[in-house]
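Hey, resending since the last one bounced:
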Amino acid sequence: MHRPTDPNPPAVPKRTIGLRWAHWISNPPALARAILRPAKKAPGVGLVLQRTRLGVVRRELDRRARNAHLPDAARKLAVDPASIRLCLVRHEDKVEDHGQVLGGNWDLDTVPFEELDVFVSFKAHFQQGVAWNDTDLYERVLAQIESGRTPWGCTSKADLDARMRSLDDLYVSIRANGYKAQDELSNRRGKYWTLIDEVSVCISRSGELLFRDGRHRLTIAKLQGLKAIPVQVGLRHREWVDLRHAILDYAGAHGGKVMAPLPHPDLADIPSTHGHSRFEAIRAALPVDRGRLLDMGAHWGYFCHRFESLGFDCTAVEADPESVRFLRALREACSRRFAIHEGTVLEYPLEGRYDVVLALSVFHQFLMREVDLQRLTEFLKRLDTDNLVIEALPHQGPPMDRANLIGPEKFVAFVAEHASLRSVTPLANCEDDRAIFLLRG
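The structure tokens again:
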């Protein structure tokens, strides 16, 4: 989907002497290659060059990460291949791009990855049995060779046929032995390019993962239905980095943590108060694995992200404007579809029957005043569900005095009675001693 480019695009990332030298020394022109070849045979010279290149790249990536207040630029993210849907049209040197932050409209010029002739041809070959030389990819590359170019280092049809056989071998190897990161491959350990030669993506202003390099490995991962592969981030859009910094500011004001694990792979390094144990306990106890799910007091939408990935049709209800801002941003970043209702829980217009309702530490706020308690009672009577998950505060949990007087057991019984749910099952105790219960009809 090509879109207009920025009429005043920002300058491309600043090139650095160190990375240019490291890249050149590994891919020198023919004359330099002829000069370096005998030198590399001298004892220890090859090893020194390799370690020097590794050090140069490592230092440059560290510098970029520090300057942009980003994580280690050489780190790998665990990414679901299916989540990489678009291919970035912009073609700059991935070494120069790596770890950079750039504004402008570069992230809007994309095409669907699965429309590339690489993906179409791989799918035809590996899933439909089409011979390589009958695919569009083969015809395109062969035409390049016949015009004097050397794609993949191939200079003849025989070279191309050997290359295609190597792709067959790669497909079989990944299926038999699993997907290996570059530094796990014995013939590449210690090589400088293993720092930047995984499948690489750029991150758009909204958080979309845009394919950048490594199309053969990504295509195979998609065709084999792999759930996670190591991916590295090259270029990030300035607006995405601003969002990341806003999240870090929020965490800094709340003890260095956000509430729950963040669903985007580029935010997974930010610590959270809760882990995944609450979700795992709830999922294991629910008698349904599809249907309508209502998350009341959704905060940033952790549970909607998780349950939507399982096939639930989710709605998030959240009243706090700051939380809604992050809730919407993370939904877009992860390409989720769940609905968002901005407003208090008791104002939400219940619509029909819900297969699952989550109310994690939200009902206690309505125990302070008699009028709110009455509103809660009426809301529970209108709530139509057979599976209500609630979280109860501990006995000594200030500042909710009335909630403490009622106590967790009486509170749970109160909710169950007015929601007409007869069965109460304890599920788990959270990190802050809040207990989770499943109430069923």
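Residues 17-240 form one domain.

Sorry for the duplicate.
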